[in-house]
Amino acid sequence: MSQRAFNFNAGPAAIPLVVLERAQQEFVDFRNSGMSIMEMSHRGAIYESVHNETESLLQKLLNIPAGYKVLFLQGGASTQFAMIPMNLLGAGQVASYVLTGSWADKAYKEAKLIGETHIAASSEADKFMRIPSLNEIEVPDNAAYLHVTSNETIEGTQFQEYPSTGHVPLIADLSSDILCRPLDVSKFGMIYAGAQKNLGPSGVTVVIAREDLISSSPKTIPTMLRYDTHFKNNSLYNTPPSFAIYMVNQVLKWIDEQGGLTAVEKNNREKANLIYNTIDHSNGFYLGCAQPESRSIMNLTFRLQSEELEKKFIKESEQAGFVGLKGHRSVGGLRASAYNAVPYESCKALADFMAEFQRQNG
Ligand SMILES: *Cc1c(COP(=O)(O)O)cnc(C)c1O
């Protein structure tokens, strides 16, 4: 087999090699059915067992309490930006958002299309390079929910702890950090994540919600955009993205084999430390973008002194087998996305490359 790239793509992103290999083995003939899983009915026993097992694996890994339901939806996290206010924002209520960066802003703007909104806190004055501290966050009494973006994929910041919101449901976009560390699901009314960063391929969005929030949607909402449709039909109202859900199933089994989320977090912190330490010990050659106490362990953003030097870094990194280190076009600079599936060896190779690049250009 040809050499695997050092894949630091932001999304779609790296998938564990063993998961790809297992999927390859089962690709043409799934469990002696004479078919690929892509070719079979989503109403049949084989697919249904994969579907239900995927929910069970999430329940196990995240220790999801009773009274929560896992949904597998389509349309990406971006569709959740609209479905959340459509389903949950009632008359006389406001949808409250913590503005932490590009993705929080998109979620907030969708809610503005639907109803009354409120900004609970914002770090825009600091160019979104930090997560507001918990005591900056103000939730109005008539809030339908408080929405936070757990990890800002573009800016490279991450909540280290989540606000307590009392009777107001806390909703979190975990698209770029779900399963990167243990999570107390009972703190949340709902969490959601597009799969293509930490869960598998694109095409499915995981929603984990308190059942009372998704069991009766307003009557005026179209069928497919109602949470109650998917809740009542176990995410099988229409044809689900069966292959993507199967891949998520495989990724969850792999996480379980790694020792679950405590072990995964330890590995992620070691990976991130390799690169942050290189930045912090570079005497200003590399400049971390996010404020240190808000740094993400998933998306690590940094800059060099000039755009010319950044271009040179990207060009030489590509020649050395690294992929995806260019920052998002909206903010520039450099970004290494070190999701769960990015091996320690890739991060070690990047830290070594960074040190060598500094030696030659510093
Ligand atoms: C990638 C991303 C999204 C958008 O996900 P889609 O599935 O492409 O709609 C939303 N929020 C965050 C935090 C992301 O990283």
TrEMBL record:
Aminotransferase class V domain residues: 6-345
Catalytic reactions on record: O-phospho-L-serine + 2-oxoglutarate = 3-phosphooxypyruvate + L-glutamate; 4-(phosphooxy)-L-threonine + 2-oxoglutarate = (R)-3-hydroxy-2-oxo-4-phosphooxybutanoate + L-glutamate
EC number of this enzyme: 2.6.1.52
Residues with PTM N6-(pyridoxal phosphate)lysine: K197
GO biological-process terms attached to the record: L-serine biosynthetic process
Example of a GO MF term: pyridoxal phosphate binding
Entries under PROSITE patterns matching the protein: AA_TRANSFER_CLASS_5
Protein residues bound to pyridoxal 5'-phosphate: A77, S78, W103, T153, D173, Q196, N238, T239
UniProt-annotated binding residues for L-glutamate: R43
Entry cofactors: pyridoxal 5'-phosphate
Origin: domain of life: Bacteria
Pathway assignment: Amino-acid biosynthesis; L-serine biosynthesis; L-serine from 3-phospho-D-glycerate: step 2/3
GO cellular component: cytoplasm
A Pfam family matched in the record: Aminotran_5
Cofactor note: Binds 1 pyridoxal phosphate per subunit.
Compartment(s) of residence: Cytoplasm
Entry coiled-coil feature ranges: none
Enzyme class, UniProt record, top EC level: transferase
Keywords assigned by UniProt, alphabetized: Amino-acid biosynthesis, Aminotransferase, Cytoplasm, Pyridoxal phosphate, Serine biosynthesis, Transferase
Family: Belongs to the class-V pyridoxal-phosphate-dependent aminotransferase family. SerC subfamily.
NCBIfam families associated with the record: PRK05355.1, serC_1
Its job: Catalyzes the reversible conversion of 3-phosphohydroxypyruvate to phosphoserine and of 3-hydroxy-2-oxo-4-phosphonooxybutanoate to phosphohydroxythreonine.
UniProt subunit comment: Homodimer.
Name of this chain's protein: Phosphoserine aminotransferase
Organism of origin: Paenibacillus selenitireducens
